[in-house]
């Protein structure tokens, strides 16, 4: 079974480029433009890895990562934050991201990061799906508060 990777960025061009690169490498890739799309996709797909930009309109990647890492049904999913911001390491530490990638991407570092997380043996996700409705409601409340800023 292919590893499902979920890309999250509010810049369509970035999503297109990363999806093409990962698809050519043999990964199954889904994309999300914002928090609302992300949460639905995470619960439905239970991806093996989430690659997420920090700087997005509405709910930022650091906040989304923190929500994912504090939810019983998503905390096991590795989250890699990417950004050109100088504070990427501080944001990642605060939200408990599993790794960071700096923009512009170093091809070797990107490939190494993928291999590191894809090689992990992930737990059975079926137990996490049963708690998804409760987590989805809590997260929807947060994204609703920011809905005026979400694409």
Describe this protein's structure.
The protein is of the alpha/beta class and 151 residues long. It has a single domain (4-145), classed as Response regulator (Rossmann fold). The chain contains seven helices and five strands, in the order βαβαβαβαβααα. It has a five-stranded parallel sheet, with helices on both faces. The protein starts with a strand and ends in a 6-residue tail after the last helix. 32% of the residues are buried. Residues 121-136 and 138-151 have low confidence and may be disordered.
CATH class descriptor: Alpha Beta
The strand order across the widest sheet is 2-1-3-4-5
β-strand percent reads: 15-25%
Shape: globular
Structural class: alpha/beta
Share of residues in helices: 40-55%
User: How many domain modules?
Assistant: 1
Q: Which fold name corresponds to the CATH topology?
A: Rossmann fold
The separation of the N and C termini measures: 32 Å
Taking pLDDT < 50 over at least 5 consecutive residues as the criterion, the unreliable ranges are 121-136, 138-151
Q: Using DSSP, what is the number of strands? A: 5
Based on CA atoms alone, the radius of gyration comes out at 14 Å
Give a quick account of the main beta sheet: strands, pairing sense, barrel closure. Answer: 5 strands, parallel
Q: With helices defined by DSSP (H or I, 4 residues minimum), what is the helix count? A: 7
CATH architecture type: 3-Layer(aba) Sandwich
What is the ordering of alpha helices and beta strands? EHEHEHEHEHHH
What would you give as the CATH superfamily?
Answer: Response regulator
Mean of pLDDT: 80
């Amino acid at each position: 079974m292919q590893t499902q990777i979920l890309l999250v960025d509010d810049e369509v061009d970035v999503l297109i480029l990363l999806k093409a690169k990962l698809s050519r490498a043999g990964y199954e890739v889904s994309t999300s433009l914002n928090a609302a799309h992300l949460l639905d996709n995470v619960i439905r797909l239970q991806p093996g890895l989430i690659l997420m930009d920090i700087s997005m309109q509405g709910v930022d990647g650091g906040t989304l990562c923190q929500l994912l890492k504090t939810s019983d049904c998503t905390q096991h999913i590795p989250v890699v934050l990417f950004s050109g911001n100088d504070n990427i390491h501080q944001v990642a530490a605060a939200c408990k991201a599993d790794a960071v990638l700096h923009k512009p991407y170093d091809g070797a570092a990107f490939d190494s990061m993928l291999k590191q997380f894809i090689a992990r043996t992930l737990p059975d996700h079926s137990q996490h799906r049963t708690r998804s409705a409760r987590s989805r409601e809590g997260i929807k409340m947060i994204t609703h508060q920011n809905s005026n800023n979400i694409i």
